[in-house]
Amino acid sequence: MKRTVGLLCLAMLTAAPLAAQDSAPAESDNAIVVTAQRSGAPMWIVETPSGTVILVGEIRAIPKTTPWEPARLEEATRQADRVILGARPKISPGDIFRLMFSGGKLTKLPDKTVASDYLDAAQLQRLEALAAVHEEDYSRQSFLLTSFRMLREELRFNKDTARDASDVVKDAAEKADIAITRAATLRGEDVIDNLFEAPPTAHIPCLVAAMDAVEAGPQIVEERAANWRRFKIPAVMNNPLESALGQCWPWADETLGSELRTIWVDRIAEASANTGTTLAVVPLRVLAEGGGVLDQLDARGFDIAGPPWK
């Protein structure tokens, strides 16, 4: 059960300077922008008539070997007027008990069905081949659980990682008493309902993408982080690991995933009307995907400076 809850949390959440597209982003006269850019995290600057919005593009589970400077991001956070962080589920004790007593709905396929009842011949052959190689039995296991087990245990993408950008900014803001706003607070009950109600077929794209990532090999973990640090945003978005995380719940869910994206456009538009500097840590896939936050802000006529995202 602890593993199931841990995987749910994982799903709710999938040093030497390097060049970005052959050159670093142009530095602004704004001191906080300069400091933030020197952290090495990819970011976009939105200048408004009344202030500045800094959008830090976050990927989760950055390997410790990735050369970036979290201390610079901490320093920039201390200079900000406000901070916006990602949506957070509000989990109640009742939600925990529900997970404990209904966890089988998350871990197993329903009604004694098996993988072959849902997958086509090619998908089933790939799954059985991976199961044989890794000495696992995926036949009755839920496709979502199988996907995250593959990514976690075979790619080990969340092992030996540094602090995520959102954790860096959150800790620095709390210490400096900087106002923190969450993009949204989601009811744990709604999140769990959404997960329980999804049919097995809804998680097949996640499973296929996870198999793609595992078959591509463990080197994609370092490649994803290296391209993030080099500001090669399309390369990050096309990395099999990042693609898999984006194809899995909650991001791929039509209801929850859509809500998680929409709230960011609204929060950033609101922040653009504020005076001073707003520092926002946004999932890179939400920023840079086709039709994502950056595309929508660009379509609204916002002045955006930063690395190419498409």
Q: Name the poorly predicted regions.
A: 1-29
Helix fraction bin: 40-55%
The main sheet comes to: 6 strands, mixed
Strand order of the largest sheet: 5-3-7-2-1-8
Overall pLDDT score:
85
Estimate the strand proportion.
Answer: 5-15%
Which key features would you list for this structure?
two-stranded parallel sheet, alpha/beta, 50% helix, six-stranded mixed β-sheet, single chain
Descriptive report:
- With 310 residues, the protein is α/β, with parallel strands linked by helices.
- Helix content is 50%, strand content 12%.
- The strands form two sheets. It has a six-stranded mixed sheet with strand order 5-3-7-2-1-8, with helices on both faces. A two-stranded parallel sheet has the order 4-6.
- The longest helix has 16 residues.
Set down the secondary structure blueprint.
Elements: H1 2-12, H2 31-37, E1 43-47, E2 51-58, H3 70-79, E3 82-85, E4 88-90, H4 93-102, H5 104-107, H6 121-133, H7 143-154, H8 165-176, E5 179-182, E6 185-187, H9 188-197, H10 204-216, H11 219-229, H12 233-238, H13 240-247, H14 256-271, E7 276-283, H15 284-288, H16 293-299, E8 303-305
Parallel strand pairs: 2-7, 3-5, 3-7, 4-6
Antiparallel strand pairs: 1-2, 1-8
Helix pairs in contact: 2-3, 3-8, 7-10, 10-13
What does this entry show, briefly?
With 310 residues, the protein is an alpha/beta fold. It contains 16 helices and 8 strands.
